[in-house]
Every structure is written in structure tokens, then in C-alpha cells.
Amino acid sequence: MIPELTKFKGYSIKNLPKEEPLAPGHRACQGCGEILALRMAMKALGTDVIVCNATGCMEIVTSPFPHTSWRVPWIHIAFENAAAVASGVEAALKVLKRHGRFPKSRHVDVVAVAGDGGTADIGLQALSGALERGHDFVYICLDNEAYMNTGVQRSSCTPFGAMTTTSPPGARSIGQMTWKKNVPQIAVAHGIPYVATASPAFFLDLMNKVKKAALVKGPAYVHIYSPCPTGWGTRGEDSIKLARLAVDTKIFPLYEVIEGKYYLTRKITKPKPVEEYLKAQRRFRHLTPEIIEEIQRRVDAEYERLVKLSEL
Amino acid sequence: MGKRVAKEVSIAIADAVKLARAEVIAAYPITPQTHIVEHLSELVANGELDAEYITVESEHSAISAALGAVATGARTFTSTASQGLALMHEILFIAPALRLPVVMVVANRALSAPISIWNDHSDIMAERDIGWIQLWAENGQEAVDLVIQAFRIAEDRNVMFPTIVNIDGFTLSHVIEPVELPDQEEVDDFLPPFKPKYKLDPRKPLTMGPVGIPEIYFEAKKAQDEAFKNSRRAILRVWKDWAKRFGRVYNPVETYRTEDAEVVLLINGSLAETAMTAIDKMREQGKKVGLMRFRLWRPFPMQEFRKAVSGIPVLAVIDRALTPGGVGGPVATEVRSALYNAARRPRVVNFIAGLGGRDVTVEDFEEMADRAAFYLKKRPKEAYEMIGVRES
Description:
- The complex is a heterodimer.
- Chain A is α/β, with parallel strands linked by helices.
- Chain A has one domain (3-311): Rossmann fold.
- Chain A has helices at 3-6, 33-45, 57-62, 82-98, 116-121, 124-133, 183-188, 203-215, 229-232, 239-248, 274-279, 289-311, and strands spanning 49-53, 74-76, 109-115, 138-143, 169-170, 173-174, 194-198, 220-225, 255-258, 261-264.
- In chain A, strands 2-1-3-4-8-7-9-10 form an eight-stranded mixed sheet, with helices on both faces.
- In chain A, α8 links the parallel β7 (194-198) and β8.
- The longest helix of chain A is centred in the last third of the chain and has 23 residues, at 289-311.
- The two termini of chain A are 16 Å apart.
- Chain B is of the alpha/beta class.
- Chain B has two domains: 3-246, 3-Layer(aba) Sandwich (Rossmann fold), CATH 3.40.50.970; 253-387, Rossmann fold (3-Layer(aba) Sandwich), CATH 3.40.50.
- Helix content of chain B is 41%, strand content 19%.
- Chain B has helices at 9-19, 34-45, 59-72, 82-92, 94-97, 122-125, 140-155, 184-190, 214-246, 271-284, 302-309, 330-339, 362-377, and strands spanning 3-8, 24-26, 52-54, 76-80, 103-108, 133-136, 163-168, 176-181, 207-208, 253-256, 263-266, 289-294, 296-298, 314-319, 347-353, 385-387.
- Chain B starts with a strand and ends in a 5-residue tail after the last strand.
- The chains are: A alpha/beta, B alpha/beta.
- Chains A and B meet through β1, β2, α4 and α6 of A and α3 and β9 of B.
- β2 (74-76) of chain A pairs parallel with β9 of chain B.
């Protein structure tokens, strides 16, 4: 076990940090699950951080000049390069400390934040480069399963069958025709010390995972499920309910991979049918029973594979 | 005093970056920039330069990481060429808008296709509007001096703009020249540590790179433009100081034997050295010819340029890049535009030469000067002519 993690007692209801590095008053949609997840992540990280944000919903809603929701240093350069910018920040802190130009004793967590498009599609190369080089930073992917900021276009993280503006169902289409890209597994393949999936429905688990990601030395990757009422066609007040359902149906399993070893952080012994999750969202309402069955089979198989990995 | 040594120019440039005490280097290898970054890697590996070298996976990430580093307050260097510069394109605009003073050496090379690793200026000419200070070196000494000066210029509190030093790929980057490398103490005295007013620091949080809504975007760009134009004063101040300390004089527009010239050739970069040989030869033959080159390309040195061309009958602009379907090569287009409102202006003729590593010889320069002299009497029919290209 990683020594930094064994010392960590974890957050509970009793010791939640009071700081809100991400201030309220931002312009996120009502019921946005992504901003909730980001707020929790920032609470877990505290104020000794530098945030490198990719272009996307979170960047837009938190920084319309002259306003900002950020009480911590924050930089946005472009869409595909959050991991590269974070690499530069991390390298600079290292050398500045060596040169006595930044207090040596002050630990600063470097955090890259991006959406699923900025991570799985356009930013994948920069992410891979930064993970491979071993920078001491945390990469947080807030996955709302499409390009929501530009008006709900499909990404490689859009789930099979989902309707988006560029994966519309029609006579020759069932909606998204490909299965969701598994970015956490890609991160694991880099041999980094810490990878986790998290959900805002399990906020203590989310905060603890983000904090652990910050505590480990070297790169850490946290993939966070982020409900999007606007893009998914769901009710704002249902975001957390939906996030819980995604976990309980095994669609979005919660796990950690610490130094290559898999741990299921929430074992689903009595799974709910995927249909319950799919029926609650307008983006899936066109799906036929046959396709729902196909999704169920795939979800079961992938979960089974994950269970086996955790037993290794 | 520094010592005079014979060095490959790329190696000398890396040594200059070391003398400038760069703290972060983020670079991706591309011919003909490689010798610069290889030598920097060596300097870091053997402890001669205490810097972080980020071996990024692309030029896009090279410039992105460089901006992250400089935003955090570290003196930062990168270098690229051609396709690499083109890959950086998106991020290049963001650096000056966020006032992030990274220094970059561009080893100028042709753009694909056909793919070519050889020298011309099409890479940098595609980046005229990025808002970086852009300088041209003619020889190894200038390359060394300009790199050290570039950090001081870029990081000046009255400037805070990223800066490019252009060196010709191969014809300058790979030649061995005598250069004087200043002593470390001299450079330290000239170039104080980088201390930006604004940086990413948890002790004083700030938001960098926010959304520019329509109510603010235009004003932000105007402020950037004015600050950029004002950087001219600081650049001149730095050059004055350099001349005082090191005895080498730098001007925004450099001229050679232009006093009574009837024809003046204008060419940027290392080929101006060949052009000088041609000028000397033609002068011996009694031809009144001179030479001019831009050292400062951005911000465009309007004042110095107009002064330099005043009284010249014909200016022959030699472009090392093509503007397909345009009104001339990129330098000629700008020069014509700069002179349009001048009370007295030379006739501007334009030649395109030396694309993709094609040699431009002394004879080629003579031919261009002769043709330009002919065009003094008779206006050219075309906006530009190509020199040194096979017709069949």
C-alpha cells in the first residue's frame, strides 16, 4: 500500500472541510451534476492547489470576466491541453522550490479538470503524455457523456444507444452506435499509482478518492460521472438519484486501482435492471426492448470482468 | 569579457539559454531544431543547467506546458520549426493575450507539402498575427545575443509578451561559426531573475484565461494591441543597454551600404550574409546597390523602416515564402502596405526565392538587383517574380 494513503484517515460527515474553493454564484444549469461533483472535489482538495481547466462547461460557467467562482489559482488555456498545462505548472513548482523561489515546505496540488470530450477525445494525447511522464498531479475527468457545452454532440464517452445531436436515432441509426470508451482503463494501462471512478451520489467516496489522488506521489486519474439534465433530458432534481441508479445498475461501477490492484469500492450484489436507468432519460427513450437487452448483456459482462480483476 | 569560440549555432543557442538560466524547457524534437533541444537535454542531464526539461509528446503540448510553467513564474524556453510551429498555432495566440512571456527559437523551415525539412520562411510567415514579438537573427552571434535579450525583453514588466527568435534552419542552425558567449556574471547582471507581477500562486489566487463576453473581448484586444505597440520602447531600451555592455549594436531595421543606393535589396535572416557579398561585388562594379533586413518584425518597426527607405528609388523585397493567390510575398505585401501613405516611397518590386532549401546564390542576388534597376524605368507587370525556379 502507498504510505501516503495509509496515513489518510478519510473524510466523514464529521470532518468535512468548511472551505469552498469553488464559490457559489456560477452559471451552471439547474441540477447540473458536474458542478456538484467539481465542488465536492475542490472541497476535498482544499486551497493549496492550482487548477488547470480545459475548455468546457465548467470553464465557461465559472469564469465570465469580470466574475470568477475560483478562490484558488486557476488557469484556462484551451480545450485539449489541460494535462499539458498542468505538466508545465508542476515542473515550474518543482524548479522554483529548488531555486528557493517558492516555499519548499508548501505542498501545492496541481489539478487538471476536463470534460469527457476534453479527456477521451481531443485531450487524450496530452493526457497520455502527462501520465506517462509521471508528473505529480491529479487529472479529474467530469464525464457527462457528450459535448454539452456546444449543444449535446456525441463524444467517445457517449453510451451506446444514446441520442445526441450528432448521433440522432433514425431509420438507419439507433442513436450512438459505439460503446463508451473506457478511459479509466486507459489510465490504468499507463501504470500510474492511482486511478478511480467516482459519483456525486456517493459524495464522501468521491471526496476521499480525490483526496487520495492528491496524496499519492505521481499522476492520478479520477473519472467522475456527471449527470447533465440539459443534455440527457432529465429533471434537474433527479441528477443525484440518476447518479445513484447508474451505480446500482452496474452501468457506472465505482472502483479504485491502486498501484495496479483493483478494488471495488461499492459492490453491487442486487443490481437494478438497466432499463430503470434508461427509461428515466429522454436520450434513451427511442430504445427498443432488444437494444435494452443488448445493453444489459454488455453491462453484466463488463461488471463481471471488473469483479474478476478485483479478485486478482 | 566572454570568450570567443567556434560552435555550431544550435549548440551556441542552447548555451545562451543556459546563460539565461531558463528554469523550464518544454520541447518536442523536429528537424532542424533538434540540436538545440538535444544540447539542452545534455546540459540538464549533466547538471550544468538546473532546469526541468519536459519531454512533451507534441509541439501542441510543448507550448501548452510552457505556458503553464511561465504562468507559475518560471523562466521558460521552447523551440520548434515548420509543422511543429503550425501545430502550436492555436495556442500561440493565447500566450500574448494572457501576457505569458515564454521565449521560443524557431529554426525556420518549409511547410509541407511536399514535405521538406529544408529552410525557408513559410512557417513563421503563417504566424504573423499571433501577437508575439518576432526577431530575426542573421548569424550565430546575433542568435546568441537575441536569445539572451529575448528573455529580458519578454519579461520586462512593461512588455510581458512572448518572443520568437527566428534562425534559418540548417543554413544558420547547423553551421559552425565563431561566437562570443558572454560570461555568466555578465548575463546575470543584464538579466535579473523572472519575477512576474501576476502568477499562479495559492498565496494570492487569481483567475487566468477567463471567458471574454462581447462586452469585454474587444476592449481586452485593444489593450493587448496598445501594450504590444508600446513594447517597442522597451525593446529599444534593451538594445541600447546591450550595446553599452557588450559593444554590439542592434537596430529594428538593419541597413548595409544604402546611403546613395538606387536599388536596395531587402531580405530577412541568414541569406542577408550572402546578399552582402553580392552587394560588395556589385559596388566594386560601380553599381549603386544596398541591403536591408528586418531585425524586429513584430511589432512592425514602421518609424525605423520608413526612415530607412526614405530617398531610395527601388526596393526589391525578397520573400522566402509564398502567399498563394495573394498580392505578393508576405514581406512585400506588408512593406507595400507600410509605405502606401508615405509622402515619398520607393517603387517596391518583389521576388520569391529560396523556397524549400533552394540555394540563393550571389549570382541570384545580382540578377535580382539588375532586374530591380530595370524596373526603375519600367513598372513590373506582375506583383512578384520567382527566382531560381526551373521553368521546364
